[in-house]
Amino acid sequence: xxxxxLFVILPQxxxxxxxxxxxxxxxxxxxxxxxxTVSLSRDFVxxxxxxxxxxxxEIATVPGDYEALILIGGMTWRNEEAKQVxxxxxxxxxxxRLLGGICDAAAFLSTTGALNEVIHxxxxxxxxxxxxxxxYTGEEKxxxxxxxxxGNVITANGTAPMExxxxxxxxxxxxxxxxIMDWYNFHKLGYYTAPLPQM
Length: 199
Known about the structure:
This protein is 33% helix and 18% strand. The protein is α/β, with parallel strands linked by helices. Helix 3 packs across helix 4 and helix 5 (161-171) runs antiparallel to helix 6 (177-189).
């Protein structure tokens, strides 16, 4: 029986940030994971790139059994309506499931307190402090890196969709580490410069 990975997508979401993860999970995971999407309603959600996605769930109907909650970056995380996602973040942490956020979704996580006790990253530390205000006390645990995994929390800045995907794949044990690294190197370094997989 496959396990569920929930992707939170809001209007004007960064479709490429999700695509690397979902395609790798599907290709490398051999059916062990099922991809499901969540948004604020069941209406079509437009991406920055012009795709229109009909989510599987709205927040009120999210199933209780899932392996990971991944927040995809985009242009509307600072809207008032986005605060509804906070309940999902709290549920994910309470259950000890994998929690991920990239770009402005990582900054959103700073407003929930989810990053205060873990090493994390994002687009800009000062932005975290200004937006989250008193909810964010994790300044000393912020690091300037492309992507960071600490326990069950993974964060990345907006230029790191590949690194974000790699950390998620490794954390979920989607495949053997070598296969994940071969996938990452191939997509990151390119066809002619990636090391050839060992036969």
